[in-house]
Write a structure and sequence with these properties.
It contains 14 helices and three strands. By secondary structure, the protein is mainly alpha-helical. The longest helix is centred in the first third of the chain and has 39 residues, at 9-47. It starts with a helix and ends in a 6-residue tail after the last helix. 25% of the residues are buried.
């Protein structure tokens, strides 16, 4: 304290009293905001509609998206694939409301404790640490999280590309080996203009005998990081033009220009859960392969985990069957130049939906082996 306060007992008592009052008010504000966030989540959960398998959209949503946005179900008013109105809230005082939603999701069994913990860490660091920390879940891959956080912003996209993880921990490009070149595929959640640009680039360069095969996902990733404003204006204008021309269905996520960030698509629940069990089984497979040339260790491992060899064999069989063929079929459809854009998008959507049914069957099968998402 300043000298004139240190020597004044009444003034010191007044300072302490004011501080205690501010501390109590701050605690009430924090708890009130967390309670409000939890209540909003529970209200959204209670009023949400269902997906194509009648599963609650909020209950099956990816809670990592709730760290930055409040996501309210629109009951199909904005289209079947764009089921959420998104409002930014995970910053400053809003971070406490976002934290309350995470706790409510875990309390209702819609989020794992590890996911809740990782999301709470992300919310806290993102709001109260004066550096742009990564938004990856640190509990999923702590090394990638640290590297992404300490890398300067200018170089961060190249580091993320090398790791094949964007700032949210999602794969940038499909690293599965495909029988079709990258330029003719591309993810279903990126603007169509990048898919067209990738095709034009490889077709044009092929005329000179040196085809440049670049994934549309890669083009979108770097454009989004280094030319965000310009690229957004460009692909939004292209999307609106395509919609007005009747080439594609209206999508508020891509066709409302500056309002696009206020609309969110539903997350692929089956794909997320399938990826979780795939990672668990791949870890088992790595250990089994490691011990193959050490028979004693291999036997000891199987004594402790007698079903692992069967689990790995069965999973590889399931993944190499119908699911692999459906993935190839979706890539073939994506690469069809002569197919109208609207028809191509609908056919891909139907194929992905079928693949999700297959994934759900595999997920349910491996729950019997005690391998759970």
């Amino acid at each position: 304290m300043p000298k004139h306060l240190r020597n004044d007992e009444a003034a010191k008592a007044n300072v302490r009293k004011n501080y205690a009052e501010l501390k109590k008010n701050s605690q009430h504000m924090m708890m009130g905001l967390m309670g409000a966030g939890a209540t909003i989540y529970l209200m959204a959960l209670a009023t949400s509609g269902g997906d194509d398998r009648d599963r609650n959209l909020v209950a099956t949503d990816d809670m990592a998206r709730w760290t930055r946005y409040l996501r309210l179900p629109t009951h199909g008013l904005t289209g079947k694939d764009t089921e959420f109105l998104q409002l930014p809230w995970g910053f400053g005082l809003g971070a406490f409301a976002a934290a309350g939603a995470q706790i409510a999701a875990a309390a209702t069994g819609n989020s794992k404790l590890s996911d809740m913990t990782g999301n709470l860490i992300t919310i806290g660091l993102d709001s109260y640490i004066p550096v742009p920390v990564s938004r990856m879940n640190p509990l999923d891959n702590i090394s990638a999280y640290i590297i992404d956080s300490v890398t300067p912003s200018l170089a961060r996209p190249f580091v993320e590309f090398a790791m094949n993880k964007d700032g949210l921990g999602r794969d940038i490009y499909n690293n599965r080996q495909s029988r079709i070149g990258d330029a003719y595929t591309g993810g279903d959640n990126i603007p169509e203009v990048y898919k067209q640009a990738a095709k034009e680039l490889v077709n044009l360069s092929n005329k000179f005998g040196y085809p440049i095969d670049v994934s549309p996902n890669t083009m979108y990733f770097f454009a989004n990081n280094y030319l965000d404003g310009v690229s957004r204006i460009g692909h939004n204008i292209w999307n609106v033009s395509a919609t007005l021309a009747g080439a594609k269905d209206f999508d508020p996520k891509t066709d409302l220009l500056v309002l696009d960030s206020f609309f969110g698509k539903k997350s692929n629940y089956d794909a997320r859960e399938y990826a979780s069990i795939e990672n668990q089984i791949k870890e088992k497979e790595k250990i089994l392969k490691m011990f193959e040339s050490h028979p004693q260790q291999y036997v000891e491992y199987l004594n402790s985990h007698p079903m692992d060899a069967i689990i790995v064999e069965e999973f590889n069989k399931q993944s190499a069957g119908t699911l692999k063929e459906l993935r190839h079929q979706a890539n073939v459809i994506r690469s069809m130049d002569g197919l109208p854009m609207r028809d191509r998008q609908r056919m891909v959507k139907d194929t992905v939906l079928t693949a999700n049914f297959v994934k759900r069957g595999i997920i349910d099968m491996f729950k019997l082996y005690d391998v759970k998402p």
